[in-house]
Amino acid sequence: MDVLFCTSEAFPLIKTGGLGDVCGSLPGALHELGNDVRLVLPAYAEVIERAGKLETIASLVLSGASAPVKILRGQFPGSEIALYLVDSAEHFRRPGNPYLQEDGSDWPDNAQRFALFARAIVALALGQADTGWIPQLVHCNDWQTGLVPALLSEHEPRPATLFSIHNLSYQGLFPAATFSELGLQQSLWSIDGLEFNNMLSFLKGGIARADWVTTVSPSYAKEICTSEFGYGLEGLLQYRSANLTGILNGMDNKTWDPATDPHIERGYDLHSLQHKIVNKFALQREQGLPVGSQPLLLGHIGRLVEQKGADLILDSLDALLRHPIQMVILGSGDHKLEQRLMDAADRYPEQLAVHIGYDEGLAHRIEAGADCLLIPSRYEPCGLNQMYSMAYGTVPIAHRTGGLADSIVDLDEQSRRNYTATGFVFDEDNPDAILGASRRALTHFQTRRIDWWKLVITGMKSDFSWSKSAAEYFELYQRVCNNTKTQVSMAENGEQHATPSQAVTA
Ligand code: ADP
């Protein structure tokens, strides 16, 4: 099957979180199933630097760009996957985070940037930018590509569309006036289009107009249909529930393999687990904590935002650190949370190390060196850190929500007996619950060593590879294409074939 995979980030070219991990690895897994999956990304400065050899294959005149927009073609690193980059210097060639300015606020022209990205994708999807290839299906991810299904829904014929929600709380919401500024067709300003409470919602465009909607875990697919997690979109999601599927993310088990990980002090696998402790000592040393096997070393990695519950960790800290526990926290985000964490590290220099920033290598060293990974997310669409931690023999302590609930088996009497337990799961999102679960972990770590090792080993044996989830996507792709009778073909689209210099208005 021919699939155009559209995303605003994909590791290793550009990543701010799980979206980048997923979009960097799922296309490869789909390719292994025999699909011609091609990836399209904005040509951010950083991406151009890392992408290797690129050639210009088209130059498009698109509304919203003052100069022709180039489509560059290359190869996604380390794969056979074709890569398209949408190159508009005024929109994407700027340093730093793809969505945020240095002070943490959104780029003021995000609506213009991702509307332009969507228009370029539409041109690619309709065969107007790359000679000889038209996808059967366009797979969009998160609000940055939400306009694509909406724009394509106004075309006939067109490829099938699938829209994946990685996090419903990021919606691409803009004032109503932006809709007119973007020059979008009036038919899209409706309750079953882009209008949401008299605002322009990119995310809603994807949910309302895609042929199928997916999200990244079965539990989250149910949760987003409720008012607690639906952000006002629960009604629409319930309405679309016959075409809404939750598919648990997989993980890239080449990048995240403790046996071959170049970032960690000492590689290990199930048969050389004794070497894991070398990574604990190295992490303690690196983070300026007393070195030793006795304290339970908790790690936490993530964006410092309310969703991830770093404030709950802070509120449980005084009680937590009365025990023989050390913590290493890596994250960045909300400046107040960053400051509170740094203050706490000053108060507990022997027990708490905080690293503010984004550091891929340290994330790997925490996964390898910690005994447990603390994941108190208030909600978690899927979450990848718990999968990485289990692969590294690091026991997750997590809130029972979304993908965390779908991927971690709590240690109870039954799961202990049948060897299925992989972590400590708690039901409430509050400091007491964190404390309770961490104490349970500590007790097992200190005194129930057989159960502890069973947890470690069962986690390491768990299969979170992409193969199962990619097969589910593939099945869904086929179903969606069979249901969508509006496929475009090269013959039908003959007159619109582009040459490298052809101008197209989408
Ligand atoms: P989300 O996408 O909501 O941020 P996920 O758990 O799905 O959360 O994925 C987060 C990914 O980003 C993981 O690969 C994690 O290791 C990484 N990550 C998050 N914050 C940092 C950081 N400060 N430094 C390095 N990696 C980070």
Q: Would you kindly provide a written description of the structure presented here, covering whatever features stand out?
A:
Strands 3-4-5-2-1-6-7-11-12 form a nine-stranded mixed beta sheet, with helices on both faces. The chain has a six-stranded parallel beta sheet with strand order 15-14-13-16-17-18, with helices on both faces. Strands 8-10-9 form a three-stranded antiparallel beta sheet. The chain starts with a strand and ends in a 23-residue tail after the last helix. It contains 19 helices and 18 strands. The protein is globular and about 65 Å long. Helix 11 packs parallel to helix 12. It folds into two domains: 2-250 and 466-483, Glycogen Phosphorylase B (Rossmann fold, 3-Layer(aba) Sandwich), CATH 3.40.50; 270-461, Rossmann fold. By secondary structure, the chain is of the alpha/beta class. Strand 9 and strand 10 form a beta hairpin. 36% of the residues lie in helices and 18% in strands. The structure holds adenosine-5'-diphosphate. Adenosine-5'-diphosphate is lined by residues 17-19, 21, 167, 301-303, 330-332, 358-360, 363, 382-385. Residues 17-19, 21, 167, 301-303, 330-332, 358-360, 363, 382-385 line the site of adenosine-5'-diphosphate.
